[in-house]
Q: What sequence folds into this?
């Protein structure tokens, strides 16, 4: 039987500065639930090469990102200290929207016999959507933690949670998920 892992995605300083303050405690609760119940946590963060050689100017999302942003030296790209990885937790860097982009996430999941992903992160219409769709296409079970995801557009967040994610896997609040894994 395969295991479940929590993907804590794009919980970086720059992203957290753009969302409501009440979001972070819910992400922290999801992380604490995983750690308390032995669910592996994998942190996923956006990181580009220092010269942005991995970004094409035609890329609408990343082509206009100023040099130096989202690099290893950018403090805004650091994972927020309240949700920082423990030494035992994996950190995977991506260079596009999906958590699977430009890295070995799939290999790490397979090596740990992980077949179900619980998703938390910023933004619902970005990394959460891209990762949920790709994970479902790769035959992973997917649960989106509706209140541990946030989007600059509350309407988009609600539409994705209500109409898209439920058809590709499951949707739960952090509280509902915590009750199911306790």
A:
């Amino acid at each position: 039987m395969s295991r479940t892992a929590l993907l804590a995605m794009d919980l970086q300083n720059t992203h957290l500065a753009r969302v409501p303050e009440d979001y972070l405690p819910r992400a922290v609760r999801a992380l604490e639930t995983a750690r308390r119940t032995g669910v592996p946590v994998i942190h996923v963060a956006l990181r580009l090469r220092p010269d942005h050689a991995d970004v094409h100017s035609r890329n609408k999302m990343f082509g206009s990102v100023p040099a130096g942003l989202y690099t290893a030296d950018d403090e805004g790209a650091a994972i927020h200290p309240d949700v920082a990885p423990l030494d035992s937790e994996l950190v995977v860097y991506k260079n596009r929207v999906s958590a699977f982009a430009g890295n070995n996430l799939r290999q790490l999941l397979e090596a740990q016999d992980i077949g179900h992903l619980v998703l938390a992160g910023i933004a619902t219409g970005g990394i959460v959507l891209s990762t949920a769709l790709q994970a479902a296409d790769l035959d992973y079970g997917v649960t989106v933690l509706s209140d541990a995801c946030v989007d600059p557009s509350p309407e988009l967040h609600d539409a994705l949670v209500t109409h898209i994610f439920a058809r590709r896997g499951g949707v739960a609040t952090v509280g509902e998920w915590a009750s199911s894994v306790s």
Remarks:
- Strands lie at 3-9, 41-46, 90-94, 114-122, 141-150, 170-172.
